[in-house]
Design a protein that fits this description.
two-stranded antiparallel ribbon; nine-stranded mixed beta sheet; about 375 residues
Amino acid sequence: MSDLFDYIAWRGDLNQAVMPFNDMDALMFSRLSYIRFDGIVPSGFEGGKPLGEAVRQVLAKGAYADSELGKSDKRLLELLLDAPRYESLTLCGFESTLDKASEEQFAALTIRLPLGACIAYRGTDGTLVGWKEDFNMAFSDVVAGQLHAVEYLERAASLPGTLRLVGHSKGGNLAVYAAACCNESIQSRIVAVRNFDGPGFQRQVAAQPGFQRILGRTRTYLPRSSVVGMLLEHEEPYTVVESRGSGGITQHNLYLWEINRHGFTELEQVSDGSQLIDRTVKDWVANMDPEQRETVINGVYEALASTNADTVHDLGKLATLKAVMGMDDGTRRQAASAMRILYQSLRRSLPERPLKMLEDRLGILTGKGEDKPDPDE
């Protein structure tokens, strides 16, 4: 089972004249956008910082070994230093914004290629604001980060040559939105848009002309048991990739996606569980009006923000429970209604036999059915 690290080991000695930029490079650049290049890579697009020099400065800070994901980032950076394929590349246009007032978490990085540029948008970074912006997509046609992504692309387009847009998670959504909503002169220079397990869009947004024009140059990659990437509507073609993740959200980790010497290890379709989540969530959203979705999401966010936590990791279980229980009566009623609708959506989405098993288990947990008489008595 090979992965992104193996790809760099196999192909890191081949420059882009020998082996042109491909979707494994796009995956790697998507992850590179998560690296904290603050104060290292310039925010402007003139000049820039050689990739090797920027990576050495980041590693010198010693801030990438606190978690499994951090250790993987550190390993990625170390491999890039020894890969001639990337040594001539330049990084520029680094930008990172966190704005609680507008509920925006945005970051992007531009990699200058021999014949153009690759714009990599960062996904959700674990901050409460970042997660709130993600949930805002459930009731808003557009969120602040998407507008920022378009504006960033229009500035990055001052660079000559072709343009590629990539991103993982919310970053993939931003890449597609920017490509679809930029002006047509910039759009004509875009040769590829790659969305790695990022959510889609409200149906009415995806139907806009700009999305249709960019559709043939856009592709989404989903891990076998995708959760995030199955949310909302996708019009573009997609490829399912095998992942070593144990399931659910762990499959969102792109370091666990399997790669062979010819590309991604592809599958015919996502797992049954992923399809169930897709059916359930779409049915759930369809049965709640936008106002109810907004009320519930805003209410939960305000409750969590009242704990003064900045990141999801900072939230303590007890403090979180107290905050949610402290929501006003109206919001609590709306949230309870949303949970009932979710259960009904799950019932409609489950095949008959698994549904019976689920109801039996719920009956045991709630004590229902314990006093039913034995039919043989």
